[in-house]
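Is this the right way to post C-alpha cells for a design question? Let me know if I should format differently. Anyway, here goes:
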C-alpha cells in the first residue's frame, strides 16, 4: 500500500476543494507514491510527534492542523515549524493535514464528532455554503431533553475533557438547542443566535466577544485543543474502516500548548 491510498480515503470524506482559501491542507511533506509502513494520527505535527512516528515505524503522520500554515522562506531550524519539517524530511516521514475541509463537512466531520460526544442529535450545518446545505461551518442540533445551564456545562466539561470552561452569565433557562464549532468559532455567534441556540460550544472567544451574546445564549469556550481533540479519534476511525489490519496509531503526545493551574 502507498501513502496515496490513505490520502484517497481521507479526501473522499473531505475533498481538498472544501478547505478555506487561507488554509494549507494536503500533503505537506513527502511523496504520495511512497510505500506505507504505518500511520500516526495527531492534532498537531511537532518534533515529538515526528519522533514518535519514527519509533513506531510510521512513515505517515495524519494531522488536523497543517504544520506549515504560511509560507516558509528558510529551513534553518530557527522555529519549531522548521525543525519539525526538517526532522520529517530527515527520517522520511510524510505529513498530511486535513483541516478546514474536515471542519466544513457534515457527515464524518469534526463537528459531528463533537456533537456525538455531547449527545446532540438531529444536527445540521450552522452556516452552510450557498447552495450546499451539507457543507459549511459549525453544527446545530438538539439534546434529548432540556438541561439546566449548570448541568449542561458540567456535562460539557466531562465530555470534552477540559480543565475549565469560560462562559457567559447564566440566564436561568433550560438549554436544549445546542450549536458547536471545533476550534475558533466566535465568527459563528451571529449564526448561532439566528438559529435560536440556547448554548454555543466552541473555543477562542476574545473578551469583548462575550458581550455579543447579549444574554441570548450561553457561550461555552472549552479551549481550542479540547474542542478538537476527538478529531484524532475520528481520523483513526475513517482509515480503520478501510484498512482494519494495517498499522494505525493514535499519538500518545499531548500537543496542547495551553496549561491550567
Amino acid at each position: 500500500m502507498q501513502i496515496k491510498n490513505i490520502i484517497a480515503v481521507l479526501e473522499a470524506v473531505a475533498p481538498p476543494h472544501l478547505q478555506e482559501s487561507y488554509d494549507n491542507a494536503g500533503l505537506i511533506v513527502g511523496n504520495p507514491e511512497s510505500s506505507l509502513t504505518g500511520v500516526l494520527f495527531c492534532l498537531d505535527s511537532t518534533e515529538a510527534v515526528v519522533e514518535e512516528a519514527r519509533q513506531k515505524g510510521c512513515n505517515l503522520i495524519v494531522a488536523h492542523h497543517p504544520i506549515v500554515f504560511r509560507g516558509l522562506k528558510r529551513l534553518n531550524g530557527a522555529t519549531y515549524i522548521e525543525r519539525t519539517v526538517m526532522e520529517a524530511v530527515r527520517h522520511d516521514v510524510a505529513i498530511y493535514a486535513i483541516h478546514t475541509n474536515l471542519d466544513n463537512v457534515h457527515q464524518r466531520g469534526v463537528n459531528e464528532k463533537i456533537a456525538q460526544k455531547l449527545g446532540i442529535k438531529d444536527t445540521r450545518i450552522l452556516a452552510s455554503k450557498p447552495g450546499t446545505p451539507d457543507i459549511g461551518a459549525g453544527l446545530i442540533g438538539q439534546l434529548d431533553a432540556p438541561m439546566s445551564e449548570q448541568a449542561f456545562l458540567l456535562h460539557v466539561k466531562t465530555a470534552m475533557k477540559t480543565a475549565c470552561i469560560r462562559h457567559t452569565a447564566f440566564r436561568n433557562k433550560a438549554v436544549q438547542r445546542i450549536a458547536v464549532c471545533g476550534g475558533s468559532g466566535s465568527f459563528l455567534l451571529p449564526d448561532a443566535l439566528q438559529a435560536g441556540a440556547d448554548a454555543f460550544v466552541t473555543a477562542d472567544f476574545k473578551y469583548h466577544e462575550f458581550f455579543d451574546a447579549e444574554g441570548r445564549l450561553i457561550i461555552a469556550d472549552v479551549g481550542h485543543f479540547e474542542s478538537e481533540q476527538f478529531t484524532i479519534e475520528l481520523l483513526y476511525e475513517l482509515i480503520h474502516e478501510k484498512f482494519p489490519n494495517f498499522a494505525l496509531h493514535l499519538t500518545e503526545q499531548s500537543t496542547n500548548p495551553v496549561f491550567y493551574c
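Format looks fine. Someone answered above. Worth noting: The longest helix spans residues 231-242. Residues 104-227 form a domain with the Udp-n-acetylmuramoylalanyl-d-glutamate--2,6- Diaminopimelate Ligase; Chain: A, domain 1 fold (CATH 3.40.1390.30).
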